[in-house]
Amino acid sequence: MTRIDARTIETPRLRTFYRAAGPEDAPVVLLIHGNVSSSAFFEELMIALGDRYRLIAPDLRGFGQSERRPIDATRGLRDFADDVHALLTALAPGRQAHVLGWSVGGGVALQIAIDHPADVASLILQAPISPFGFGGTKDLAGTACHADFAGSGGGTANPEFVALLRAGERGAESPVAPRNVLNSFYFKPPFRATPAREEALVSAMLEMAIGEDFYPGDLVTSENWPGVAPGTRGMNNALSPKYLDLSAFVAIEPRPPVLWIRGAEDQIAADASFFDFGFLGSLGAVPGWPGPEICPPQPMVGQTRALLQRYAAAGGRFREEIVPECGHSPHLEAPERFLGLVRGFLTEEVR
């Protein structure tokens, strides 16, 4: 069986904890996790791919066991992208990497490709965040619902969920306990990991920094619905369209091929996301919704598809694969299907 090594390295950017597997001289596959998670979510994938590839999976700053260095949200996802690129430079100098990003990690992967296109051999985007961030936009072009980007940022996190993360809650009494969020939203019910694996994944969710410099970040009040706008610090503000715009990906050179994999029943990175105030307002779950003309549900999937179609029109290429009966985590919920797609794609692209 492939062995996963856990290591820590000091780069010029960050003291980074990472997991590694596979032959050191094999083609490099960089794995980037999403929000409220860590590289631990990739362990099965690393074991499965470690026969042919060198897998490197870092914990992002403030997550897992990496350094708790504050997140400058005004840079969008560039703090993370710069950290991960520094890690790649330290571990595989002069080598290209196939970059697989899950959820927010998909946005980090796109940012790395924007800033360092020659270092990216290919991109695999699994349930990626919209190129226009999370919340506060209303069309395929990422137009803001309000000038202050109300409806996005640190104030959009559920305060009870944040408190339970801070308290290290492992139970299931609250509907928004980390364990219940994992099983209701990361996965499509009735899927559940084995009991031991579920415990490990809950531990990975809890092993993160909480606060204004980390998750979820600071906030400012707004006169616009739903009453909160992005601050300048922390994770969820880095995801605000005020600071995050990945549309520059369309014009990069060279243009790596892209595989986009998403679950058909995803409730997070979705056109009807249960974490988007526009959609929650349309359901009547958040009072005062100003209606679909002002704050419709954010078309997250449509925004990603529009970006990739523009990328293809500019000379790039992408393929979209939808995994049926699957939520936000195809690599865990449908591992055989996911592995088949990834192995086939990498086999085509490794020269």
What is the string of helix and strand elements? EEEHEHEHEHHHEEEEHEHHEHH
| Uncertain ranges | none
Helix/strand-derived category reads: alpha/beta
Query: What average pLDDT do the residues reach?
Result: 97
Name of the top-level CATH class: Alpha Beta
Please report the number of helical segments: 11
Determine the fraction of residues in helical runs and give it as a percent range.
25-40%
> What is the CATH-assigned architecture?
3-Layer(aba) Sandwich
Q: How many beta-strand elements?
A: 12
**CATH fold label:** Rossmann fold
Number of domains: 1
The proportion of residues in beta strands is 15-25%
Query: How large is the radius of gyration?
Result: 19 Å
> What's the N-to-C terminus distance?
26 Å
CATH homolog superfamily? Alpha/Beta hydrolase fold, catalytic domain
Write up what this structure looks like.
- The protein has one domain (5-349): Rossmann fold (3-Layer(aba) Sandwich), CATH 3.40.50.
- The chain has eleven helices and twelve strands.
- It has helices at 43-49, 78-91, 104-115, 159-167, 178-186, 195-206, 235-238, 277-282, 300-313, 330-333, 335-349, and strands spanning 5-10, 15-21, 28-32, 54-58, 97-102, 120-126, 210-211, 215-216, 219-221, 228-230, 258-263, 318-323.
- It has an eight-stranded mixed beta sheet with strand order 1-2-4-3-5-6-11-12, with helices on both faces. Strands 7-8 form a two-stranded parallel ribbon.
- Helix 1 (43-49) links the parallel strand 3 (28-32) and strand 4 (54-58).
- Helix 2 packs across helix 3.
- The protein is globular.
- The mean pLDDT is 97.
